[in-house]
Amino acid sequence: MASVETIRQYYERTKRLVPSDLAATGVSRAHFNVLRRGNCYASLQFVRRDYYKICLCRGSAELFTEAGSVTIDRPAIFFSDTSIRYGWQNRSEEQAGYVCLFNEPFTTADLRHAFRRFTGLFDPTGHPFLFLDEESYTHFAGHFEALMAEHRDDFIYREEVIRNILKLMIYTAIKMKRASNIPIPKENAKDLLVSRFLNLLDGQFPLDSPTEMPRMRSPADFAHALNIHVNHLNHCVKESLGKTTSELIHERILKEAIDLLRQSDWPVTAISYGLGFAYPQHFNAFFRKHTGASPRAYRSGGN
């Protein structure tokens, strides 16, 4: 039995056409999809996935977690990230609801942080899910319908809209969990610091012109702005998000580069200088390292 199911294997297992953005090999591309659960697969292996998933479901089923099985006999919403092992077995033919899934390149640091905030409210041997009443089910169904509408749209910022809807769903679930009678830990100083860092990082983008380069490009720059030692920032970020401060900075710069290549008519050289690279060759090497393609090839390929 495989220890990890890939997002491509998900489509193959459910006998769906593998989307074109996952068909290419050797290049990691952002992927998001949202589907109705009418033809939901009857069972899932008890493994980890290399993708994120949010499932709104109605129907009888059995959820298998590290702590044992849970009977699902009423509406519920489930969240899973790349660290969670779980299995699933439908117990009734009638299954309804929605599922959305997306891979690591689609996520942003703040989306992952939101996911961890929610999953952190649960026993690590269990599974982060909530049973829902009819009003809450209808509320989340509205969010999934909005995701489907945005996913079909050709709006150039649709991915940003989709991520914001996903975060809204996660924080709605956090609010519901906090309103329950089950004791949960309070957010600590480390989480607040990480949130401030992410806000500073994201607040530098998008760029409006090639002359408007980010003021903060290194962990030391952010630590100075936050009035803390850089080692403390690095420790908190790594412990909370599982990535280094430098990795998250590079990830956000890469996302901005991809957005500008897709959506602007700026020359590649202008994008390079706008993102703070002293030489275009450095930008080319950075982009190729993370995508497997040069900036010009990525733009001309229509990615």
Layout of secondary structure:
Layout: E1 4-5, H1 7-13, H2 20-23, E2 32-36, E3 43-49, E4 51-58, E5 61-65, E6 68-72, E7 76-80, E8 85-90, E9 96-103, H3 109-119, E10 129-131, H4 134-152, H5 158-179, H6 189-203, H7 219-226, H8 230-241, H9 245-263, H10 268-274, H11 280-291, H12 295-300
Parallel strand pairs: 1-3
Antiparallel strand pairs: 2-9, 3-8, 4-7, 4-9, 5-6, 5-8, 7-10
Helix pairs in contact: 3-5, 4-5, 6-8, 7-8, 10-11
Describe the structure.
With 303 residues, the protein is an alpha+beta fold. It folds into two domains: 4-179, Jelly Rolls, CATH 2.60.120; 189-300, Orthogonal Bundle (Arc Repressor Mutant, subunit A), CATH 1.10.10. It has helices at residues 7-13, 20-23, 109-119, 134-152, 158-179, 189-203, 219-226, 230-241, 245-263, 268-274, 280-291, 295-300, and strands spanning 4-5, 32-36, 43-49, 51-58, 61-65, 68-72, 76-80, 85-90, 96-103, 129-131. The strands form two sheets. A five-stranded mixed β-sheet has the order 1-3-8-5-6. A five-stranded antiparallel β-sheet has the order 2-9-4-7-10, covered by helices on one side. β5 and β6 (68-72) form a beta hairpin. It starts with a strand and ends with a helix.
